[in-house]
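Journal club prep, notes for RB
We'll compare a predicted complex against what the paper describes. Inputs for the adenosine-5'-diphosphate case:
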Amino acid sequence: MALHGSREREQRQHELARSRRSRASSQDPETTAQDSDTVAEAIDLCKDYGDKDAVVTALDHVNVKFRRGEMTAIMGPSGSGKSTLMHCMAGLDTPTSGKVIVESLEVSSMSQKELTKLRREQIGFIFQSFNLVPTLTAEENILLPLQISKKTIDRQWFDKVVDVVGLRQRLTHRPSQLSGGQQQRVACARALMARPSVVFADEPTGNLDSRSSREVLGFLKSSVAEYGQTIVMVTHDPRAASYADRVLVLADGQVTRDMSHPSYEEILAVFSDPDSEDHNSDTQTEAQPTDYAQQHTNPHIADQPGMIAQNEVSRD
Ligand code: ADP
């Protein structure tokens, strides 16, 4: 895939940002001024689970800005708050206090209806378990979110995305006829079809072998470089995180490191230092499947967009 010149790319990013912001501000929810480089922001974000007898603090005053056109990896030990942060940012979970802002809209104060609209229009999701509809072809899966929200399909964009993820010859295949890597590439294409402001990816390579992981990560990275896509990815895998422009490390619900363009070795060093508070016994040294999906089941996910429940789908 040819890379465009940096000026052309900047101009494209600028135009996309402007159209996304105007899409966002045409909605009703409360708006909060945000600088144009910031797509999503957590302000003093706290999340407690349980009641006063047994409170678990999953997020402890997190402040972070996710910048436009950047791929950020969120790492940290199991239970450090990665999924909770991502779910709060995506409007899948409600913070106990603090704010989440996406495209200048205050997500934390939205009604369910507003949240559904936000997730359909501004946010793309990629999950470890692909979440494709087994009875639909690859093409039908990619187009499904747009069809559900009755959006016009931009065929030129569809062709571009399909070519970039290398699925041209597989469009009529059903998920069971595709490899894991191909299924995840379908999920990536689906997440990008609506040109969301931000894609949240939860262990996108957790079920893939290392070759398929490289393909999927390479594609995600090129969507950042080519189209200014903003991606926030939770991962246990330092190799996957080394594709990111920025790596945030969480421990006990707080951001403990914010690394810019770290190498694989630098990321590995953070987690292999036994004295470090970030030390993570789950961190993988090679990409390999984990049982992450079994450990992290968010009750809201099944009825959220991007992740379309079977009963929403009807075939002729
Ligand atoms: P990570 O994604 O880093 O593994 P999580 O965000 O899933 O961490 O969890 C952070 C903390 O919050 C953990 O202690 C976890 O047990 C707790 N937690 C997460 N979800 C819930 C829940 N629905 N109910 C109670 N505790 C939860």
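Talking point for the session: The pocket of adenosine-5'-diphosphate is lined by residues 49-50, 56, 58, 76, 78-84, 296 (CB under 6 Å).
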